[in-house]
Design goal:
Length: 621
């Protein structure tokens, strides 16, 4: 009997699993069918011309997938960003609209958006088009010509591109023939030379900014001396353009009108004047539009059709982050996202913008400034516990101000800033630092010397070169070098080498659980369940308000997106309770709680389970 019941339960589970699989497969197929068969058409007539010359904004995404990562934006976040642009009144324009605008024969809509997706990924086309259809948005899909020969399923084929154009939601553009890097050094000035994207990915964690794109400069040796003559440089660059033109002409019967030069931002068409002249000549001969810069969304008659700029939203940006950047670039009014109005009504937004989403407060700073909210109705708090998860990126500031005067001239503050926990006390406007904790030490981060890190960099470079060696002989020679390098001793800190302090990339995600206990003149703090401040004596024992603050942390290190001066503080599952002692075992009366409960929590969990299940099938199909 027990075996029968076991088998029956097993059969039920199989049936349920099969039903879930069928539902998920149908959902995925609908996505693909919707992208493949042109069920809707783009309506160009909705983009009405005006007599106001605001130029246009250009937004460019690296790519899209279902869940998102540190480079590709997830579908949910892309939808939030595009919806916020739609609700702010933006309409998309076409390549021909831009050409006509700079030719002086056409005005653009008051809020014109030129939308771009780079790198020509197949998942971008599948996931982005469904979202674009909702808002009647049209976009340009960029591709690299050399990807057509490699038959990589991640990238769109020429046949795919032809079908995309027929859908009416897409135009075609190009990033060029290849994405490769020249004159590459790691952060220890080891010369890596000329590397492709695969090798770049293998050594990226050991690189700084000392490298260039393929068309930006002469090819140079480790001393910076060109290894090619002017004629050789000219021939090399011309070959790239000729190969690109030939492949597009053969595969899709035309060269796209639009080009994005990778990567200039120099005020010209390369980092070297002579190289710039060759690029400029070929670009103007072959294309009608060129984007030459990144970091600013606005384009107007102050620029030219061959020197346009685009803003590249990062995958972690909130919708308000994007809108904040656009507003700063253009001075146009935008409609910021508020989210849950019931939750928002419990807080006063003082600076920046706040979105209340699920169990989160996403607090977006002003450019080079702060975002600040105050908890209403509880302005006389003295002894309490505060817990919350901090989900903003490591580089930047997420802060709680406690027992604060209304004008913030007196308060206690606990901030997680650039991977440190800093405790400060302000009295009559004068702020004193009471405690600083490096979170690398809390995490048990392996402490290396500079010599040890340099050795690790060289090992990673050798392993990468072995992986992509062009012959057995080359691989064998590199393997011998690797074995020798592994045997070498590197000075440790104890041996007298300096400490290696890792640089925080502005894209590095953060996830910290912060607990603060404040009782009379005693402050204690736990981070990720580890006690880091134990009964620190404070002077401020007055009642006061609770503020949350996010702040731009300065221009942090990044291999791209160097001009981002806006920060999203993400405060999740905030709970404030009364207490009668430091970290009391007994839970006090709840003062504030933004966690989901009851039906809201149930439906939120169901939605998360469904989303995760769908993501798993998409990743593993």
């Amino acid at each position: 009997m027990k075996n029968d019941k076991f088998l029956q339960n097993k059969d039920r589970k199989k049936i349920l699993r099969s039903i879930v699989q069928i539902i998920v497969l149908i959902s995925v197929l609908l996505l693909i069918v919707n992208a493949t068969f042109n069920l809707k058409k783009y309506n160009q007539n909705l983009a009405k011309q005006t007599n106001v010359d605001n130029g246009f904004i250009a937004i460019s995404y690296f790519g899209v997938d279902q869940t998102g990562d540190d480079t590709l934006i997830g579908t949910e976040r892309l939808n939030e960003q595009l919806r916020s642009l739609y609700e702010s009144g933006y309409v998309t324009i076409t390549q021909q609209d831009i050409i006509d605008y700079y030719a002086g024969v056409k005005d653009l809509p008051d809020k014109s958006l030129f939308l771009i997706f780079e790198d020509g990924r197949r998942d971008t086309a599948i996931f982005a088009q469904e979202i674009m259809e909702r808002y009647n948005f049209k976009a340009t899909m960029l591709t690299y010509a050399d990807k057509f020969d490699k038959n990589d399923p991640k990238f769109l084929s020429p046949e795919d591109l032809i079908q995309l154009e027929k859908s009416t939601f897409w135009e075609l553009g190009t990033n060029g023939y290849r994405l490769e890097y020249i004159n590459v050094f790691d952060r220890y000035k080891n010369f890596l030379g000329h590397i492709d994207t695969l090798k770049f990915a293998g050594v990226a964690s050991y690189l700084g900014r000392d490298y260039n794109h393929y068309l930006m400069d002469y090819i140079r040796d480790e001393y910076g001396i060109p290894t090619e003559s002017y004629d050789e440089m000219t021939a090399r660059i011309n070959e790239d353009y000729d190969l690109m033109k030939a492949i597009y002409s053969e595969e899709i019967n035309k060269l796209p009108k639009l080009y994005i030069l990778m990567h200039s931002n120099t005020g010209q068409f390369a980092t070297n004047n002579k190289v710039s002249e060759i690029n400029e000549q070929r670009i103007k001969d072959l294309f009608e539009i060129n984007f030459n810069r990144e970091g600013n969304a606005e384009n107007n008659h102050d620029s030219t059709v061959y020197d346009l700029s685009r803003l590249q939203p990062q995958s972690y940006w909130s919708a308000n982050h994007l809108l904040m950047k656009i507003q700063a670039d253009t001075n146009q009014n935008v409609k910021f996202v508020s989210g849950n109005t019931k939750q928002k009504s419990k807080w006063e937004t003082i600076t920046g913008e706040s979105e209340f989403k699920g169990e989160q407060i996403i607090l977006t700073s002003l450019p080079e400034g702060t975002g600040l909210v105050q908890l209403k109705d509880h302005v006389s708090l003295k002894n309490f516990d505060l817990s919350m998860s901090l989900k903003g990126n490591k580089y930047g500031v997420q802060k709680a101000l406690l027992r604060s005067a209304a004008d913030m001239s007196n308060n206690l503050s606990v901030e997680v800033a650039n991977n440190q926990v800093i405790v400060k006390e302000k009295e009559n406007g004068v702020e004193v630092v009471l405690s600083v904790t490096d979170l690398n030490s809390v995490d048990g981060f392996e402490v290396n010397s500079i010599d040890q890190d340099k050795k690790n960099a060289e090992i990673a470079e050798l392993k990468t070169n072995i992986q992509y060696a062009k012959s057995i002989e080359e691989a064998s020679m590199l393997t011998n070098s690797l074995n020798q390098k592994l045997q070498e001793d590197a000075k440790s800190i104890d041996d007298g080498s300096q400490l290696y302090a890792p640089t925080i990339d502005i894209r590095e995600s953060g996830n910290r659980f912060l607990e603060i206990s404040l009782y009379e003149d005693s402050l204690s703090i736990r981070i990720d369940n580890k006690l880091i401040v134990d009964r620190l004596t404070v002077k401020n024992t007055a009642e006061g308000a609770v503020f949350l603050e996010s702040a731009w942390g300065g221009y942090g290190y990044s291999q791209r997106n160097l001009t981002d001066d806006v920060y999203d503080g993400v405060f999740e599952k905030i709970v404030i309770t009364e207490n009668n002692s430091v970290f009391s075992e007994e839970s006090g009366t709840v003062i504030y709680d933004n966690c989901l409960h009851g039906r809201e929590l149930f439906f939120f969990r169901i939605k998360e389970i469904w989303k995760n299940t769908l993501n798993w099938f998409i990743k593993t199909l």
